[in-house]
Amino acid sequence: MLKNLKIIYAAGPGNVIKTYEYWADNQDDPSQVSVTYSGQFYDVCRDLDAEGYVISSNSDKKLEKNGQFILEHRPLPGRNSSGIFYHLGQIWYGLRFIVSALLFKADLAVVADGTTHWFLLYLLPVFGVKVVPTLHCVLWRKYQVPSGKEKLILNLNRRFFAKDCTAILVASEDIAEQVKQLTDNQHAPMVPFLPTYRRSEFAGVVDPDINASPFRVLFAGRIERDKGVFDLLEIAKRFASENHHNIIFNVCGNGSQLEALRFAAKQAGVTASFVCHGYCNKPQMREMFNRSHVVIVPTTTDFVEGFNQVVAEAILAGRPVITSAVCPALSYVGSGVVEVPPNDTQAYGDAILKLSNDQDFYQQKQLNCLALQEQFYEVSKGWATAFTSVLKNLDKKASSPLSEKITV
Fold first, then answer.
1. CA geometry: angle 333, 183, 123, nearest 5 deg
2. Of the chain's two ends, which shows fewer C-beta atoms within 10 Å, N or C?
3. Who contacts 245 (Cβ-Cβ below 8 Å, separation ≥6)?
4. CA distance 286 to 205
5. Residue 118 in contact with residue 133, Cβ under 8 Å?
6. How many other C-beta atoms can be found within 10 angstroms of the C-beta atom of residue 135?
7. Across the beta sheet with 247-252, what order do the strands follow?
8. What CA–CA distance (Å, rounded) separates 53 from 70?
9. How distant is the alpha carbon of residue 276 from its chain centre?
10. pTM of the predicted model, to two decimals?
């Protein structure tokens, strides 16, 4: 079996130190509804008695050593920049990560998307460090042709996914299809995973009451234009003009466009039916789900979408979802979803009216949600299981122990 592994993990922007503190006390991080990926990484390292070095791009710079783990918050330079400064930040961060992996004498590097440009990581296998990317977002906008600059980067990344990485963890079928397309099916083995939830998180959510008025539509997520929040406002304005006064939008979340959205709703005179709540903690979100009839996910084609866990959470709350194929989660929960064409504000509004006016249709969608829930509770479908399967497969195939590597 696997022995004395040293694994470095680029985990994205989460607060991996706080998550570790909860994990060490046998608790899930209460700031997240799903089981965090860093928490699952800690589980794998504990089960295999492996040393772990976790690097997050969290802006709260910090470095700690806890038991078998080194935990670091290493801010990503240029995260909010554009053009050359963004790419320079990606390259600098990637080079620093490579150096950290070598100094740690890592056997394997697990790297979440957004860490760096993938093509840089070809250097790690040169020094005997195996690389496993974990892809949570599509590689390019599903319904848009990549720009010239994006095509250049994708072309540079092609070799990495085809030859330089050991396996690829993928969060959706859409991501897997793009990897296949990019590499002409000459890619490293892909292992799928789903977000994982505890049953206790939804134990307090009551069944929706279709007879309750008003009919409540819930949006939960980042308040950004490409997440479709201004499309929601257009729907609310349409409903006001058509005298559909029994439909209320509850918009929950923070983002750069929150105040602009509130101002636009006020200017349109729809603040009574279009309520921007801002950030909501878990008890507040549970109440929002309890009051809601449906959840809407109107992500536009301008956004590089991930699985979008709000879709899974809506299904677990027993609420039908209105969304488009921009959202990769659709392929896992289709029978509980009213699918509309991307960016089609008219169709989104019509779907709300259909669900609010047709009780039989609504109840069938709601029942379908119940049949779809189990997949998100199954640990066997989660990230930790997927990653562990990669490690065990490497151990079986290795002609020499994983611990053999070039000394730096």
1. 110
2. N
3. 214, 239, 273
4. 6
5. yes
6. 23
7. 274-278, 247-252, 215-220, 294-297, 321-323, 337-339
8. 5
9. 23
10. 0.93
7, 56 Cβ separation under 8 angstroms: no
pLDDT at position 14 over 60: yes
Rounded Cα distance, 408 and 1, in Å = 26
Encoded tokens for 53: 């070095």
Q: How many CA within 13 A on the CB side of residue 163?
A: 8
CA atoms of 338 and 361, how far apart (whole Å): 10
pLDDT tens, position by position, 255-291: 999 999 999 999 999 999 999 999 999 999 999 999 9
Q: What would you report as the CA-atom Rg of the chain, rounded to the nearest whole angstrom?
A: 22
By residue count, the chain amounts to 408
Task: Name the token pair of 213.
Answer: 């008025």
Residue 158 near residue 184 (C-beta atoms within 8 A): no
**Bond from prior residue into 342 cis (ω within 30 degrees of 0):** no
| Placement of tokens 């929601």 in the chain | 232
